[in-house]
């Protein structure tokens, strides 16, 4: 008998709790439906929401509790209206509240689609439409403040609110990348790849007759409408290139930073499949092998890049560095001199040529130090001394060029001074000392 009473009491309590939930949900909906709720309405709204958070048990009730909760900061801001201070605005509208809003609205839309009862579907669609411009401006402002991680979060929320707007996901990935939030950036970039996003398209421009300035239009039909009104003329179409190469390059960089070299190599292979003519991908792949100290593959790939872009001084210089590291001094000198031909102000190429030449001086000093004092050895000493002086004479033009382009390079200044002193070039030495002081 007692167990029967317990079951009956339990059923009554569940029933009472369910009625309470329904009443509180009705109160929340009533307040939410008001154009501008009052301060007392907000107190009731928060009170009922707080009660429901702990007792909502059915799927639908939980969804709507989260919906009202995600809308709360924005309703509060509406109540404050023009009296809202900047601090209050930051409290209510921030990357987290926007992210929560996107989650709450999407969950509600999914539930209503599944249940077939469209209570807030149309209202949410209108809300998203009105929120988007404000949130986009907010994201841009955060980016301008170099708050890249926060800007990325807002842009991703905008994408969540409108999955057709894949460009927002692309910019979210870039901002996350710039903010060194590599986990988020990688997640966003990989989603773009799954979506087969390229960013290719056409930009539509026309000149505003009144201002004389060129303006951008989202579509050709938009531009044609203004053109027909004769407010704009000089229409121009601009081809927007694919962004896939950039996306893959950033993925490779992230994997490299994380030490995931094999994943980086796979990403480059996939990138080259979709962008076989993109020389920047070859360069990205080459740099990856440079990071892993596979100099043979690096040199092979750089040579391929140079065949397509023979006037890239940085690439030629890097080949010189690789050749020098592999003790191929003839090729190293050739590449350094070629870099200077391309860019006569390439300071590092002059410096590395000087270093390459001075390496021979070390060997000569070692040989001179091992000699004795016999007539034959003295004769050999003079030959080596002359060779050493020739080395010093050969590096002077290179060191002087470095000083010309980088006059505060203390190490180079000291090296040049030592060379002058070794060759007993007193006037040059005196002038350089005065310059250094």
Keyword list:
single chain, 437 residues, mainly alpha, three-stranded antiparallel beta sheet, 20 helices, 5% strand
Structural class of the helices, strands and pairings? Answer: mainly alpha
Gross geometry? elongated
Q: Would you report the number of β strands? A: 3
Mind telling me the C-alpha Rg?
35 Å
Q: What is the oligomer described by this structure? A: single chain
Can you summarize the main beta sheet? 3 strands, antiparallel
Distance between the termini: 106 Å
Element string (H = helix, E = strand): HHHHHHHHHEEHEHHHHHHHHHH
What is the arithmetic mean of pLDDT? 85
Strand content: under 5%
Walk me through this protein's architecture.
The N and C termini lie far apart (106 Å). This protein is mainly alpha-helical. It is 76% helix and 5% strand. The chain has a three-stranded antiparallel sheet, with helices on one face. Among the domains are: 201-240; 346-437. It has 20 helices and three strands. The longest helix is centred in the N-terminal third of the chain and has 32 residues, at 2-33. The radius of gyration is 35 Å and the shape is elongated. The chain has helices at 2-33, 39-55, 59-80, 86-92, 95-115, 121-144, 148-161, 166-178, 182-194, 220-228, 244-257, 261-274, 279-291, 295-308, 313-325, 329-342, 347-369, 375-405, 410-422, 426-436; strands at residues 201-208, 214-217, 232-240. Mean pLDDT is 85; it is low at 1-20.
């Amino acid at each position: 008998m007692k167990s029967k009473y317990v079951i009956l009491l339990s059923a009554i309590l569940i029933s009472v709790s369910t009625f309470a939930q329904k009443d509180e949900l009705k109160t929340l909906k009533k307040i939410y439906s008001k154009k501008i709720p009052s301060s007392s309405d907000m107190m009731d709204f928060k009170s009922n929401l707080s009660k429901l958070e702990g007792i909502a048990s059915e799927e639908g009730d939980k969804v709507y509790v989260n919906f009202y909760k995600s809308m709360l900061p924005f309703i509060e801001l509406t109540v404050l209206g023009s009296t809202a201070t900047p601090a209050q605005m930051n409290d209510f509208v921030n990357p987290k509240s926007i992210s929560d809003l996107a989650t709450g609205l999407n969950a509600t839309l999914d539930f209503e689609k599944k249940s077939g009862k469209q209570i807030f579907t149309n209202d949410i669609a209108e809300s998203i439409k009105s929120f988007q411009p404000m949130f986009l401006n907010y994201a841009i402002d955060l980016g301008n403040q170099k708050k890249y991680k926060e800007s990325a979060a807002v842009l991703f929320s905008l994408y969540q609110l409108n999955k057709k707007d894949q460009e927002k996901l692309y910019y979210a990935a870039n901002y996350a990348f710039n903010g060194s939030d590599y986990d988020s950036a990688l997640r966003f970039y990989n989603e773009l790849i799954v979506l087969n996003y390229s960013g290719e398209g056409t930009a539509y421009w026309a000149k505003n007759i009144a201002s004389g300035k060129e303006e951008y239009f989202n579509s050709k039909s938009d531009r044609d409408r203004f053109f027909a009104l004769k407010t704009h003329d000089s229409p121009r179409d601009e081809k927007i290139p694919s962004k896939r190469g950039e996306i893959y390059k950033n993925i490779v960089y992230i994997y490299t930073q994380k030490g995931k070299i094999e994943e980086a190599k796979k990403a480059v292979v996939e990138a080259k499949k979709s962008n076989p003519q993109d020389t920047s991908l070859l360069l990205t792949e080459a740099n990856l092998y440079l990071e892993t100290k596979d100099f043979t593959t690096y040199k092979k790939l750089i040579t391929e890049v140079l065949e397509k872009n023979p006037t890239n001084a940085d690439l030629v210089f890097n080949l010189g560095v690789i050749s020098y590291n592999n003790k191929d001094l003839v090729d190293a000198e050739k590449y350094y001199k070629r870099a200077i031909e391309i860019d006569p102000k390439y300071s590092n190429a002059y410096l590395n040529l000087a270093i390459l030449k001075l390496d021979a001086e070390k060997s000569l000093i070692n040989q001179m130090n091992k000699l004795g004092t016999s007539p034959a050895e003295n004769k050999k000493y003079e030959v080596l001394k002359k060779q050493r002086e020739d080395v010093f004479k050969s590096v002077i033009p290179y060191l002087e060029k470095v000083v010309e382009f980088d006059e505060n390079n203390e190490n180079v200044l000291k090296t040049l001074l030592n060379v002058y002193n070794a060759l007993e070039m007193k006037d040059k030495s005196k002038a350089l000392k005065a310059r250094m002081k």
